[in-house]
Amino acid sequence: MAEYFIVISVITAIITVYDKFASKYLPRFRIPEKVLLATGFIGGAAAEFITMKIIRHKTRHKKFMRGLPLMIVLHIIIIGILVYRVYF
């Protein structure tokens, strides 16, 4: 399970940085917001949120600055349930 979150977090951070680069230099080749949100939803929300804050990308978009923290909480709850079911 940890390996999955590491891989999806790295992929999410890479596409977030790429989208920041594309926003300045390659506007025709941007990553759609749906894709950014989907990668956050499937496990990369924490990495995406941190990356966006560091590189100052989409920090004015409410759906990212409110949605990603909610996804992080959802991931913590899911991981907690899974850990509880395995160990208790």
Element layout with pairings:
Blueprint: H1 2-25, H2 33-55, H3 62-65, H4 67-87
What does this protein look like?
This protein has 88 residues and is an all-alpha fold. It has one domain. The chain starts with a helix and ends with a helix.
Structure at a glance:
This protein has 88 residues and is mostly helical. The chain has 4 helices and no strands. It is elongated.
Average pLDDT over all residues? 96
Q: What is the helix content?
A: over 70%
Note the total helix count.
Answer: 4
Through-space gap between termini: 17 Å
Catalogue the unreliable spans. none
Please provide the ordered H/E string of secondary-structure elements: HHHH
What Rg do the Cα atoms give? 14 Å
Q: What is the count of β-strands?
A: 0
**Outline:** elongated
Helix/strand-derived class?
mainly alpha
Q: Tell me the strand percentage band.
A: under 5%
Tally of discrete structural domains: 1
Q: Please outline the major beta sheet.
A: none
Characteristics:
single chain, 88 residues, mainly alpha, 82% helix, elongated
